[in-house]
Specification:
The chain is mostly helical. It has 9 helices and no strands.
C-alpha cells in the first residue's frame, strides 16, 4: 500500500496541475510516480525537467538500456515495467531485454551498448565509474551525451529510491 496517495490534476496543488495535465496528454494517463510527486510541486517539476532533458541528445536505445539496467539492479519493478516498454519503443529487442542481466556475454548487444550497460551498472552499484569505461564511452559519445548518460543513470536511481521510499504502486 502506498505511503502517500497519488493525486489527480483536479486535487493537486495549483503549481502541479499543469504538469500533471501535460503528463496525461503525453502518456494518455497519469503515472503514479508523478501523481505522488505532485504533493511537492518543485520535486515534480524537477523530475519532469530532468526526464525531458535526458531525451535531447542521447540515442533512445542507449538511454533506455541504462535506465532499465539501473532499475533492475535496484529491483524497482515500477520503473522496470515502464522502461521495458520505453526500451522496446526505442528499438531494444526482446533478446536484449532477456539478456540484460548477462549483457557482457550476450551477442545481442553491440560493444557500445555493453559499455553503456557497464557504466549504468558501475554508477548504480558503486556510485562511481572506472576510467576505462569512461574512456570507452568517449569513443562514441561526446561530452554532452556523456552528461546525459550520467543524468539518465542518476535519474533512474532517484526514481527507484523515490518509488521504494513511498511504496508507489503500478496502476
Amino acid at each position: 500500500m502506498p505511503h502517500v496517495q497519488p493525486l489527480d490534476a483536479g486535487n493537486a496543488p495549483q503549481k502541479s496541475q499543469p504538469i500533471l495535465k501535460a503528463i496525461e496528454e503525453k502518456f494518455g494517463q497519469s503515472l503514479n510516480i508523478f501523481s505522488t510527486a505532485a504533493h511537492q510541486p518543485d520535486i515534480l517539476g524537477g523530475m519532469t525537467q530532468i526526464n525531458e532533458g535526458i531525451r535531447n541528445d542521447l540515442p533512445g536505445t542507449l538511454r533506455e538500456l541504462a535506465y532499465l539496467k539501473s532499475s533492475q539492479i535496484n529491483q524497482c519493478d515500477y520503473c522496470a515495467h515502464y522502461h521495458k516498454q520505453a526500451a522496446k519503443q526505442a528499438g531494444v529487442t526482446d533478446q536484449q531485454l532477456a539478456d540484460i542481466d548477462n549483457y557482457r556475454d550476450s551477442a545481442a548487444f553491440s560493444d557500445e551498448e555493453k559499455t553503456v550497460l557497464a557504466y549504468a551498472e558501475q554508477l548504480t552499484k558503486a556510485a562511481q565509474v572506472d576510467d576505462a569505461t569512461v574512456k570507452n564511452l568517449k569513443n562514441f559519445l561526446n561530452e554532452k551525451q556523456l552528461v546525459s548518460l550520467a543524468g539518465t543513470v542518476a535519474l533512474a536511481n532517484f526514481t527507484n529510491r523515490f518509488n521504494h521510499g513511498l511504496d508507489i504502486q503500478l496502476p
